[in-house]
Amino acid sequence: MKGVEMLQTEFTPSRAIELQWIYESPDKKQRYSYTVRANSDQVSKETLTKIAENYLE
């Protein structure tokens, strides 16, 4: 997504879905780890992906 590789994990029986990725600053001096998690009964994979995309802007 937008040149960033993300790891998507689905947990059962909790029905949680999670996206994880690492962003490296342009000067390559800092790395930031992000995790976005939601209950798949309440948030779809597509919605979770859109939420993650907002972090990349």
Number of DSSP-assigned strands: 3
Radius of gyration: 12 Å
Counting DSSP H or I runs of 4 or more residues, the number of helices is 1
Largest β sheet strand count, sense and barrel closure:
3 strands, antiparallel
Mean model confidence by pLDDT: 90
What is the structural class? alpha+beta
Which spans have pLDDT < 50 for at least 5 consecutive residues? Answer: none
> Percent of residues in beta strands?
35-45%
Distance between the termini: 12 Å
What order do the strands of the largest sheet run in, or round the barrel if closed? Answer: 1-2-3
Helix proportion of residues, in percent? 10-25%
What best-fitting shape do the alpha-carbon axes yield? Answer: elongated
Order of helices and strands: EEEH
Description of the molecule:
Strands 1-2-3 form a 3-stranded antiparallel sheet, covered by helices on one side. It is α+β, with helices and mostly antiparallel strands. Strand 1 (7-11) and strand 2 form a beta hairpin. The protein has 1 helix and 3 strands, in the order E-E-E-H. The longest helix is centred in the C-terminal third of the chain and has 11 residues, at 45-55.
